[in-house]
Amino acid sequence: MLNVTAIETFYGPSQALFGVDLSVQTGEMVALMGRNGMGKTTTIRSIFGLTPARRGSIEFETQDLRRLPAYRIAQVGLGLVPEGRRCFPNLSVRENLLVTACPGPWSLAQVETLFPRLAERRNQMASTLSGGEQQMLAIGRALMTNPRLLVLDEATEGLAPVIRQEIWGAIRELKAQGQSILIVDKSLAELLPVADRCTILEKGRTVWSGIPEALDESLRDRYLGV
Ligand code: ATP
């Protein structure tokens, strides 16, 4: 479904990615891992054309994403839950969801079933939501685009434990429904049992890919610092 091969990405003159390889098959959940500053967000920004890759290839189904501007990438079946959530603060919860709606199985009612808190807060301004509720809204907004691949950057970073569990519950449900997912999160305890495969980045390069069961203690020590 998604094939990223040897991408190199720069911020001005400064190179952040030196050769990232990553793939997601249909129905798979792939965890993109690595310590802080290793290039996870930059990889996601490259896929979405927000910080375009200068070299390498990014193919999504039949599309060559490097040839498309960011607004077109958002229309070809990729849904992004960005780091920092980026909800529209002055729109209501409902408006935040409707603004990205595209035809498909995900509707307002289904997002509200997945996240009942959003139904309770339907008419509130997004700016009045807690961080965890904003994260639910960001996930709901991405689902409203009916993406074939959902991409989550820092799915539960900085959220209260109760809310994190709600969000992991929703992610597990999405996985069970067959949603293809690429996810970044630091919580290995929640991530590893649900991921089908992991890809680890170090200093802007893919250094390891494999199934979670193969991620032994020495690999964790070496690349994840835990
Ligand atoms: P984190 O877990 O902290 O979010 P990350 O793995 O997502 O880290 P990136 O944010 O992709 O890592 O950063 C990769 C490299 O690119 C780092 O060296 C970082 O300092 C650099 N970088 C990120 N954003 C910018 C920017 N806007 N301008 C210049 N350099 C940047």
Task: Give structural notes.
Helix content is about 35%, strand content about 25%. The chain has a domain at about 1-75 and about 180-225: Rossmann fold. The two termini are about 30 Å apart. A hairpin with a 2-residue loop joins strand 1 and strand 2. The strands form two sheets. Strands 6-7-8-3-9-10 form a six-stranded mixed β-sheet, sandwiched between helices. The protein is an alpha/beta fold and about 230 residues long. The site of adenosine-5'-triphosphate has 11 residues, from strand 2 and helix 1.
What keyword list fits this structure?
226 residues, alpha/beta, Rossmann fold, six-stranded mixed β-sheet, four-stranded antiparallel β-sheet, binds adenosine-5'-triphosphate
**Helix fraction bin:** 25-40%
Strand content: 25-35%
What is the CATH topology of one domain?
A: Rossmann fold
CATH architecture of one domain: 3-Layer(aba) Sandwich
Largest sheet: 6 strands, mixed
What is the H level of CATH, i.e. the homologous superfamily of one domain?
A: P-loop containing nucleotide triphosphate hydrolases
Mean pLDDT: 93
Low-pLDDT sequence parts: none
* CA gyration radius, whole angstroms: 17 Å
Q: What's the shape?
A: globular
**Total strands:** 10
Number of helices: 9
For the biggest β-sheet, the strand order reads 6-7-8-3-9-10
* Content-based structural category: alpha/beta
Distance between the termini: 31 Å
**Helix-strand string:** EEEHEEHEHHHHEHEHEEH
Bound molecules: adenosine-5'-triphosphate
CATH class of one domain: Alpha Beta
Protein name: ABC transporter ATP-binding protein
GO molecular function, one term: ATP hydrolysis activity
Keywords: Amino-acid transport, ATP-binding, Nucleotide-binding, Transport
Organism: Billgrantia pellis
